[in-house]
Design brief:
It is built from 5 helices and 6 strands, in the order E-H-E-H-E-E-E-H-H-E-H. It is 24% helix and 34% strand. It starts with a strand and ends with a helix. The longest helix is centred in the C-terminal third of the chain and has 10 residues, at 128-137. It has one domain (3-137): ph1033 like fold (Roll), CATH 3.10.590. It is globular, with a radius of gyration of 14 Å. It is α+β, with helices and mostly antiparallel strands. Strands 2-5-4-3-1-6 form a 6-stranded mixed sheet. It has helices spanning 15-21, 33-40, 101-105, 114-117, 128-137, and strands at residues 3-8, 25-26, 47-52, 58-71, 85-100, 123-126. It binds a DNA duplex through loops.
Amino acid sequence: MAYWLFKSEPDVFSFQDLVDKAGPEEWHGVRNYAARNNMRAMVLGDLGFFYHSVKGKAVVGIAEVVALAHPDSTAHEPGEKVVWECVDIAAVKAFPRPVTLDEIKAEPALAQMILVNNSRLSVQPVTKQEWEHICRMGGL
DNA sequence: GCCAACGTTGGC
DNA sequence: GCCAACGTTGGC
């Protein structure tokens, strides 16, 4: 059982979109090896924060891994040798109150988070301590 | 809108 | 194999 963080621009795909989907959503479009490797490491039942980048800049909800890494259906460019992969996720619950990036940065206990130190990695691991800390901050 | 950070590409 | 140049991301 591991914890993760999925980043998305809400204008492109928001947590509400995931809630509305009410089922598996293929987390396609990731074109970064570190992020792909993180998805390969996921197992069914792993949980991940859903973070809104650019607009909102806050952890807004929790999602669950509902399908193991599989080929990204959008990665079929002609001649593309690399097979990108992705997991499927589904919404679990929204935070009663979103935890903003500012709040995370203000927490010494969260200073080691990848979100703080490498904001560009779109799929990140989160430690159990970080997970529980942010859940408390968000009212869960 | 700007720019720093990061990852990738390509010349050498 | 190194590194400069470039494109993209995302915070500010």
